[in-house]
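During the no-cost extension, the postdoctoral fellow (Dr. R.K.) reprocessed legacy sequence entries with the updated structure-token encoder. One reprocessed record is reproduced below for audit purposes.
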Amino acid sequence: MITNFKKEDVITLAIETSCDETAASVLKNGREILSNIINSQIEQHKKFGGVVPEVASRRHIENINNVIEEALKEAGVAFADLTHVGVTYGPGLVGALLVGLSAAKAIAFAREIPLNGVNHIEGHIYANFIEYKQLEPPFISLIVSGGHTHLVYMEDHGRFEILGKTRDDAAGEAFDKVARALGLGYPGGPQIDRIAKEGNSDAIVFPKAYLEEGSYDFSFSGLKSAVLNYLNSRKMKGLNISVEDVAAGFQRAIVEILTEKTVKCALEKGVDRVVLAGGVAANSSLRSHLKSECEKNGIDLKYPPLHLCTDNAAMIGCLAYYNYMRGLRSALDLNAISNLKIGDYH
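Re-encoded structure tokens follow.
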């Protein structure tokens, strides 16, 4: 049994298996992490240059029970202590999602406690609620990850307005593809961030797509193509390629467009707080540039610590807690939804 908690405390077991991390976390009252266990599959997928869905699903099956047991043990919590179970049910890889969802359903059924299925993208926003105990809506959130790039106005818990999103490649996806073309390996984001520090971001100017006037949507496929065309052209002509300068110029283009649209959106919406979320929120250039521009415009910027930027179960547990407190419950026939949208509840 756990100690140092009150009868009214809500103890959440959260499970996250949307992509290639098998993760489980235990939280008290949504914002206090008692444990946060992550089993990463990066090494298994590196040789393929990206995540292979079938491999990811198989690894989740192998890891899920041990990860849950480790999370409970580290937290000093038994199954009998749990108030409810939170789990990602979308978006993500269907096979991967089903592993975590099945485990969560089994625990909820066996212990006769509520199940709370949550949205993975919304979960990234909630990493900030763990780090900043006084944080409350409303605010603008820029969510940037391998599969998603969104500008969202969060009016209150459960009330989201999507103001902008990518029309093609997500920012993280563009990072991975360009990193692969530069021979930097997988995952691409951290590699680009690292090597860009050694390059000159003014040496090569790549295009930024602003789209039509007033749009908060993003488009990174043109930028990605411009980088690939530059590399192919230099190779065909037998000219030298500075990987550092290419990485710096490419990263600058992405960071500037993300920052400019986010700050403009906050000012036009009359919101003085911006919350950064998602795996690309770990990018040092994005954090620095966005912080600088927000400060110039009187906007308070929040972003999670690095260990809460990438996929983890603690952020899922925080969101599950707030959904639980709002009275939301998921049925035991809840299914995985690979393309789940922000604000959708099933």
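DSSP finds ten helices and ten strands in the chain. The radius of gyration is 20 Å. The remaining legacy entries will be reprocessed before the final report is submitted.
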